[in-house]
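Supplementary Methods, section 5.1.

A reviewer requested that the exact input to the structure prediction be made available. We therefore reproduce it here, unchanged from the version used in the analyses.
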Amino acid sequence: MALSVVAAGLWVLTFARTAGMGGMPGTMGLSVGAFSGMWALMMAAMMLPSVAPVGVLYSRTFQRHRTVRLVAFTSTYLAVWALSAVPAWAALRAVEVQLGSGRSGTAIASVVFATVGVWQLSPFKQRCLRQCRSPISQLVHYASFTGPFREVRVAVRHAGYCLGCCWALMALFIVVGTMHLGAMVALAAVVAAEKLLPRGEQLALSTGVLSLLAAVAVWWLPGIAPGLT
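The structure derived from this sequence is encoded token-by-token as follows.
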């Protein structure tokens, strides 16, 4: 319940901070530091709902200090996602440089869509998704972890699988515009559905096929990539 309240609060704060941006392209003129703050907030709002069930399940293995250890797990997990701001900023900046040199935004959008599609259909995506969907085997393995930083190690490991599962979906912000509110809601829903719904694996495959189709369609429908075209 507490995690749900926190997630709702993060979404309210995200809407308040990004409402006037309207999905601006690229780095939005922000330095890596300023961008990292916005990205960390956005990732926390998007990823907390899908990781909350894992955190609650993991907390049931605690014999004592349950709240403190759950906070340590969740905070570390979100911190890993916050650190992904640096490669995200670098990728967006590289795209800005390419556009500034006269490269076609449509071509870049096609490459991004194709990359997302290939990853969504890859065995690597499916392996990471299985770990996110069925964390019981992980939790059994984590039971062997000892020491004061147990929750940190568990969270970093789980966040690694989650990054492998979701990084390509986050790359879609390149084509729709960074901090695009509609994209945030849609992608958060897709992430949660992939991890929590019974047919999550099929949804991931369907998303991959749609991305490959978009890689072709964007040449005739550039409006599907407003962040680049």
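Residues 32-59 form the longest helix (28 residues). These observations are discussed further in the main text.
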